[in-house]
Each structure stands twice: as C-alpha cells, then as structure tokens.
Amino acid sequence: MDNNIKDDQIEALETLADYIPKLIGGIDTVKAELRGERKPDTDEYLKMVIDGINWVLGIVNGCMSLFEEYHIVFDKEKANDYSAGFSKAYGTGNDAAIADAMDADVMPMIRLIQTTADEALDASR
Questions:
Q1: Could you give the residue ranges of the DSSP H alpha helices within 35-106?
Q2: Rounded to an integer, what distance in angstroms lies between the CA atom of residue 13 and that of residue 20?
C-alpha cells in the first residue's frame, strides 16, 4: 500500500479515536432527551449525532485496506445489522424506540468500530 495513503488512514483513525468519546457523550445526552428530557433542539442534536455516526462509518470504510493489511477483521455484516436496526427505529419517529436502538444497535456498533480502530493503531506502531 502507498505510504501516503497508509499515513492518511492512520491519521484518520487517530482522529476517530479522539472523536469517539465525544460521540458517545452526545449519544448519551440525546438518549436522555429522547427518554423524557426533550428540549427544543433535540431533533437538531439527534441529527448532529447521526452525522457523527455517519462520519465514523465513513472513516472505517476508508480504512478497510489498512485493516486488511494488518489482518484485522472488521465485521461489516454486524455493523450493517446494527445500522439497519437503528434506521428502522429512527424511521418510526418514536423517541423511546430511537433511544432503545441507540442502546441496542448504535453503541455496540461504536464499540466494534473503536476496538477495530484501536487494533489498527496498535498494529501501526
């Protein structure tokens, strides 16, 4: 693999590793709002969290060749299942269902991504 691409992927994973705790904090906040502490900007905040999740997924997709080089398996099928579960709940528009899907689908997906990213960063050192 081209060293420039590899360096860019490693840098992206480092940025992702720094961002994930912030994303988890945002997920926790929006879940609380969806479960009864709704505020006027909850929908906007939820969209920002979803944008963050999509950004994380984009980084993962852009780093697949790095994972392959380091023989790190990212379970795309499991990630897709988590994503589909959340999308289904989001489509209902039901706040409680969306919050529950964040617990059941989004958080496990984020942990899967975090573990994979950590493995790749460890292998790159």
A1: 42-62, 64-69, 76-92, 95-101
A2: 10
Q: 16-63, pLDDT tens digit by residue? A: 999 999 999 999 999 999 999 899 999 999 999 999 999 999 999 999
Model pTM score: 0.92
Distance CA 121, CA 125 (A): 7
Number of H helices, E strands in the chain: 6, 0
Residues 44, 95, 85, 103: is their CA dihedral positive or negative? positive
Tokens linked to 98: 């969306």
Of 124, 85, 111, nearest to 21 by C-alpha is 111
Q: How far apart are CA 65 and CA 17, in angstroms?
A: 18
At residue 59's C-alpha, the angle toward residues 66 and 48, to 5°, is: 165
In this structure, what DSSP letter does residue 35 have?
A: T
CA distance 90 to 114: 23
How confident is the model over 72-99, as pLDDT tens digits? 999 999 999 999 999 999 999 999 999 9
> How far is Cα 78 from Cα 65, in angstroms, rounded to an integer?
18
